[in-house]
């Protein structure tokens, strides 16, 4: 999620359980181990979440992160307009209720005003706290014991107190340091980020030390010949039932030859391992206009399948996803509105559901 500074005021409604019930999940456990397919097919809803007519004059809602806890969806997203970015929170119990869900703008919490964007939320079990990771010119985070209390987030702290790591500053060129993403295994927490200049980075620290002690980043992937092929919005998940090279899934947003956004995918046997192509081309993407169809009666409202997140029901720091019918909340946009100031583009959020599960 590329950007610049800003933002704004408040509104709120709704409460839900703060901590996930043990073993809670809306997915049916498969009767046998499942794996990811080598190609994907999706069905999309229309736009579900967009700016409110509430005086904020937002251009777009984008960069969502989503978890489902005890039947309630919790969504955090960037609020965007020409002047810059901040964050918003909403919750709902069904997709039908998403368009009317009240917004709570997180500049009204201790997260504060100014540039905050591209959130990721997860429950860090060792601390019994929810973490919200986001960009604020650094890799920032806030914590909260109760995800349903948007006023309860702490003021921003950063993973890199000395500022942008030198390996990023020496490779970023004219890009932006964006889209921080945390995932942990049993021993180590890993922090991924991108630079809009063809590089994907990873840092790490011990689970026992998290969130302190992030190492100097290393370059995980790079494509300096075509920086748009490794653009931004990286996601890394552990795959339930995954074996061998399919234990972990990496997804990265790219900009295609038609200037539309889409996602590429790789897999690996470990988070700090070698990533093997799964669905990483325009012809065979993870999610792109050519493998997404719209629900009956829904107009094809976007050609970009852009910055988003898998709907997670296993919400702790391991970021485990069930490969049986993946659901993915994404940002899309009317193709006729794609020109003009980037920060003021009219992004909306929709949901794609995988229709060719290998389960």
Automatic annotation (TrEMBL):
It catalyses: Hydrolysis of terminal non-reducing alpha-L-arabinofuranoside residues in alpha-L-arabinosides. It comes from the Eukaryota. One of its GO terms (cellular component) is extracellular region. CDD domains: GH62. Its main location: secreted. SUPFAM superfamilies: Arabinanase/levansucrase/invertase. It holds the Pfam family Glyco_hydro_62. Its EC number is 3.2.1.55. One of its GO terms (molecular function) is alpha-L-arabinofuranosidase activity. It is found in: Secreted. One of its GO terms (biological process) is L-arabinose metabolic process. Residues 1-18 form the signal peptide. Keywords: Glycosidase, Hydrolase, Secreted, Signal. It is an enzyme of class 3 (hydrolase). InterPro entries: GH62_arabinosidase, Glyco_hydro_beta-prop_sf. Belongs to the glycosyl hydrolase 62 family. PANTHER family: ALPHA-L-ARABINOFURANOSIDASE, ALPHA-L-ARABINOFURANOSIDASE AXHA-2-RELATED. Alpha-L-arabinofuranosidase involved in the hydrolysis of xylan, a major structural heterogeneous polysaccharide found in plant biomass representing the second most abundant polysaccharide in the biosphere, after cellulose. This is Alpha-L-arabinofuranosidase. It comes from Staphylotrichum longicolle. The lineage of its organism: Eukaryota, Fungi, Dikarya, Ascomycota, Pezizomycotina.
């Amino acid at each position: 999620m590329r950007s610049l500074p800003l933002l704004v005021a408040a509104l709120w409604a709704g409460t839900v359980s703060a901590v996930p019930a043990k073993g809670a999940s809306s997915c049916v456990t498969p009767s046998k181990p499942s794996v990811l397919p080598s190609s994907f097919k999706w069905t999309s809803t229309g736009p579900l979440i967009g700016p409110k007519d509430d005086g904020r004059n937002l251009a777009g809602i984008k960069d969502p992160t989503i978890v489902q806890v005890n039947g309630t969806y919790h969504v955090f997203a960037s609020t965007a307009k020409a002047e810059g970015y901040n964050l918003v929170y909403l919750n709902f119990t069904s997709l039908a209720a998403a368009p009317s869900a009240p917004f709570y703008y997180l500049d009204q919490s201790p997260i504060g005003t100014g540039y905050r964007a591209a959130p990721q939320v997860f429950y860090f079990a060792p601390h019994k706290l929810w973490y919200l990771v986001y960009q604020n010119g650094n890799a920032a985070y806030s914590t909260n014991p109760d995800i349903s209390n948007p006023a309860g987030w702490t003021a921003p702290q950063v993973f890199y107190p000395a500022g942008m790591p030198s390996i990023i500053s020496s490779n970023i060129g004219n890009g932006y340091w964006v889209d921080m993403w945390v995932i942990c295994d049993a021993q180590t927490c890993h922090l991924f980020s991108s630079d809009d200049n063809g590089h994907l980075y990873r840092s790490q620290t011990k689970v026992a030390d998290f969130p302190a002690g992030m190492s100097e980043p290393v370059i995980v992937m790079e494509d300096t010949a075509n920086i748009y092929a490794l653009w931004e919005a990286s996601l890394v998940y552990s795959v339930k039932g995954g074996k061998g090279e399919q234990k972990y899934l990496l997804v990265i947003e790219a900009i295609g030859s038609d200037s539309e956004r889409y996602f590429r995918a790789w897999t690996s046997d470990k988070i700090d391992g070698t990533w093997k192509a799964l669905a990483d081309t325009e012809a065979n993407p993870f999610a792109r206009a050519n493998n997404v169809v719209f629900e009956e009666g829904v107009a094809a409202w976007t050609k970009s399948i852009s910055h988003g997140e898998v709907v997670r029901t296993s919400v702790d720091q391991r970021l485990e996803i069930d490969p049986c019918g993946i659901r993915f909340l994404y940002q899309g946009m009317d193709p006729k509105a794609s020109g003009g100031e980037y920060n003021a583009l009219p992004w909306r959020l929709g949901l794609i559901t995988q229709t060719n599960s290998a389960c």
